Amino acid sequence: MERSRRRSQWILLLVASLVATSSLVSSQEGIETIPGPTAYVKTLSKDVPLLCRSSKPASDCSVRIPGYMNTYGLTSLPEGISPYGNGECGIRIGTFKQINVGKFQCNLTIGGESFQRSIEVVQAVPPEPTDIELGPDTITTEDGAAPTANITLQLDGEPFDSKYLRPLEFSETIDKKGRKLVTASQDLNYPITIADNGKKLVCRAEHFAVNKGFLRSSLLLDIRFPPQPIPTIYIGGGVHTMVNVTIKANPRPQISWKVNGMTIEEGQSFGPYQSYYPRDMDFGSYLILLKINERTDRTAIFELVATNELGTQTYVIKASKQGDDGGDHPEDAPEQTGSGAVFWLISIWTFFCSVIVSCLLSVPSLS
């Protein structure tokens, strides 16, 4: 008896389960909402579609539209709203306004059964201009938007390798108008070097509610560093000799020259030597000039000292004048003229390391 009753209960539970499953399958009826369960729409958008589509034909359709009190059939829609879809249950809002924010509901009759589906219509909110903060990490944030914006990080127009980026983080807030906004933030761990000085760090936020499709914030990298040990040297020959040295430093260095026991500060002249102020060549490069207003010895040693608040670098430059045959000329030999050339063999020392570079520069002689 007890066994028979348990079997009856089991059969009853099985039947109930089958009925519930059947009801669940029947309730779905393959109905989908387009564009989805949530529709983000920009204010004043034109021809906004809201649609409930079924895999089976619907014999009847009515809708409730945000901003309107009544339920409407597709043949009696209010002004500015038209049917949408090919025999389906949908509408098209001619011009989307603030009053159209809310729940759109469609009521369908399929095979004698009634079904309801809804789409939450949300006003799209563009992001605020992005913020970029520099610290031990570079933190970029994109202020609240609905839906969230797609943000990318670039350095001088080139995207960062993903190995430097941490995963995006999201947080939700409610603004004063009661709108749910999403803020996205991303950390960048990138080893900044002197070569990055003057480059532009860009945070780009793409969002369809922004008129031009995206917002962009940028930060010019101003990297401070002492004078660097490897300069670029050029010596121009002719009636006057001009020693050209380009060094890297930020902020601007103060310089002085030491030649034949004399010290010539920037902007000063001493005997035949004239020292110029460093010329800013952008992005931490400075051109430093020493003009020699007399014939230069075949071999000359110039000492250049560059200092800024982060350090000092001393450059010892040895220049040996040679002919176009590569040999040294006697001190009383005349300068080559016409189509000939004078060569300077330049060696550079700093207190950072020993000889850094030796190069042969060809300078046409002046007749």
Automatic annotation (TrEMBL):
Highest taxon listed in the record's lineage: Eukaryota
InterPro entries from the UniProt entry: Ig-like_dom_sf, Ig-like_fold
Gene Ontology molecular function: any one: kinase activity
Keywords in alphabetical order: Kinase, Membrane, Receptor, Signal, Transferase, Transmembrane, Transmembrane helix
Ranges annotated as spanning the membrane: 341-363
Signal peptide (residue range): 1-27
Gene3D superfamilies: Immunoglobulins
Name of the protein: Putative neurotrophic tyrosine kinase receptor type 2b
